[in-house]
Amino acid sequence: MATTTSTGRTLTLRRVDSVAADATVRHIDQLDENALELFYAALEGARPLPATGTDLEPGTVVVATEYYRVEAA
Amino acid sequence: MTEYVIIGDGISGSSAAETLREEDPDSSITVITDEGEALYNRILIKEHAKGKLPEAPISIHDEGWYEERDIELSLNTHVTGVDTDEKVVRTHEGEDVGYDKLLIATGGTPTQLPVDDSDAEGIHHFWTFQDARKIRESAEAADDGVVVGAGLLGIDFAAVCGAQGVEGKYLMRGDRWWRYALSGQGAEIMHDGMREVGVEPVFDSGVDHFETDDDGRVVAAVDPNGERYECDFAGVAIGLTFNTEFLGDIDLEQDNGIVVDEYMQTNLEDVYAAGDITQFYDVLLGEQAQNGSWGSAKEQGRIAGVNMAADGEAEAFEWVSSYSITHFDFPFLSFGHPTLGDEYAERKYSDTEWRRIAFKDGKVVGGVLIGDLAPQSKLKQLMREQRDVADQKEVLLEETVDLDDLAPPQEQ
């Protein structure tokens, strides 16, 4: 797992090796600037990914240097 | 009821259609595309070609999306001409589609290498979902690959070779990858990334001609130095030719793309353009510019839709684009116009971390970040604010950029 958080109203990024056919997948270039910054900060462990303020939903897979599934913390 | 016609169902055309329906609920909207499928995610098709992503998540809209919004979608339809006096679009089936306002969002087609046998079987260009399917199939069966085109599109072919276990040779004309935006130091990080995935960059090379077998399949690429590289897979990405042939001799201003202002208006009344095909007026740069990123195309489509519906100049396009490469262990991001500076500042921080900032008239106009992307939002902010900061390069090259360390902006 790339980032874990235990506080409320945050999301977790879990590295995944494969993607289901019915998954929602977004490339990192589709994230808006705020979401991009928060995504990278969460990936580097700098701060948790908030559950609000971005359009990242649990279940979405984000394609960056690896694939990361957004999960509810 | 206003009749809108959009040629092209890529992200810019589709974004415009969605915006028009929101802004003008009672209008007629027709989207015409020569592709056989509705909007898909063009920046994810490379992941499909790499063999990492199934097809289904790449589709964005099915035909039902258009029906729900009462948008007429014409797939597999080639536009053969536009008559801006009669205000009609002509299709290959002989149909005339009338419009009150027209959006051209036809993008481009990969340019073919002007050498012998460049259309042989096994030689691929990469633009559509259908291209990606063929590339995946071909790469899965290949042993040796050759990649041509030392830019942002070519590197996707290198990544396909790496992911599919194809031993690749990346033939570059110059001494490094993307030489217009990267110095030797930055490029070397990318070259190491290529080597890590099994693709060897070859410099001062290129392709003079391909060799084929009796069945017309590619078997080798020969570079201008006479070096021969065996291959059963080749990827060519030397640029795009914009899809404007159908416009014929109408008096539309073009300059390696369709010239539009910041409202996406062409020089012809009621004719707009959006997406990769535009030479748009960049209000941050202060001159015409071009951009092929997903976000830029989507926003141009939205802006075109807003202004078409308003029948005026309701909103200008003002955007700092981003383009990421996600093929290697380290992230890569270019933003703005990294090749259009009149001065540059750069620094290498580690074997996988490097930064270059492009300035024009003292202001940030773009850059490239490798490894550490943390400064991207601050640098984009400076670009948006058009602050004169070229004399404070040291602050911007600090490992951690703190905008509070910049001298306060001078009163103009």
TrEMBL record, chain A:
Pfam family, one: DUF7979
Annotated ranges, domain DUF7979: 10-71
Protein name: DUF7979 domain-containing protein
Species for this entry: Natronococcus jeotgali DSM 18795
Organism placement in taxonomy: Archaea, Methanobacteriati, Methanobacteriota, Stenosarchaea group, Halobacteria
UniProtKB/TrEMBL annotation, chain B:
Keyword Kinase: no
Cofactor(s) it depends on: FAD
Record-level Gene Ontology MF annotations: oxidoreductase activity
Keyword terms of this UniProt record: FAD, Flavoprotein
Domain FAD/NAD(P)-binding: 3-288
Domain NADH-rubredoxin oxidoreductase C-terminal: 330-386
InterPro entries in alphabetical order: FAD-bd_OxRdtase, FAD/NAD-bd_sf, FAD/NAD-binding_dom, FAD/NAD-linked_Rdtase_dimer_sf, Rubredoxin_C
Protein name according to UniProt: Ferredoxin--NAD(+) reductase
Phylogenetic classification of the source organism: Archaea, Methanobacteriati, Methanobacteriota, Stenosarchaea group, Halobacteria
